[in-house]
Amino acid sequence: MTKLTRLIAVATTLIPTAIFASTATKNICDGANISGNCNTTSLNASVAGITETLLTVAGAVAVIIIIVGGLTYITSSGDSSRIKQAKDIILYAVIGLIVAILAYAIVHFVAGNVH
User: Fold this and answer.
1) How distant is the alpha carbon of residue 3 from its chain centre?
2) Are 101 and 55 in contact (CB under 8 A)?
3) 28-56 pLDDT, tens digit each
4) The pTM is what?
5) H helix and E strand count, the chain
6) Cα gap 105→101, rounded to integer Å
């Protein structure tokens, strides 16, 4: 269970990297030599929708991991190694959530400044 929980915590922190890959909306139109059909506002809206969806998923996963960490803490029965494990689980989930929120803010800032 420990490896699975850590894997989920790491995945929560890696989800925002997919968001960073979708920030270059202007280069999509320029590189494809599309004239007239390429609307950066619709691309920005698509990027915004994708990032909101990914942030929602990351938030839900983080909440589940925090609950798992809390349950691990409750059922530790005073075992110091399990208490440390539970605290680490919660810490990693919170860090992953913070990284996801920062990635969301950066993507929206960059997408808002692409003309």
Assistant:
1) 20
2) yes
3) 555 555 555 555 567 777 777 888 888 88
4) 0.59
5) 4, 0
6) 6
